[in-house]
Amino acid sequence: MIIEDDAGLRRAVERLLRLSGFSTQAFNSAEDPDAAQWASSARCLIIDVQLPGVSGLAFYESLPLARPPAIFVTAFDGAATRQAVANAGGLILLAKPFLGRDLLGAVRSAL
Questions:
Q1: pLDDT in tens, the chain (111 residues)
Q2: Using CA atoms, how far apart are residues 49 and 85, in angstroms rounded to an integer?
Q3: C-beta separation of 91 from 110 below 8 A
Q4: CATH level 3 topology of 2-110
């Protein structure tokens, strides 16, 4: 599952994952009414940290425990962001722009 507000990046990530054999469901906002439902059955989440409205971190923390592993992506990498992702239980943080192979490696590691 992908939650990314940048439409171009969202489509690119979705395409990369599909071409690599993964099925995907993508959302442009954590506030999408179907996002929480999809997240509960996802095997892995890819979430932008800085989403408008509900942040990626707040969305992930709102999910019931036994959450799927999460890979967070951000354009604002720094010690505070890394600590916030770690505190929320995020598995990996990738700084934008990231390489497709790094994302695929993170997904494979999460699964």
A1: 999 999 999 999 999 999 999 999 999 999 999 999 999 899 999 999 999 999 999 999 999 998 999 999 999 998 999 999 999 988 899 999 999 999 999 999 999
A2: 8
A3: yes
A4: Rossmann fold (3.40.50)
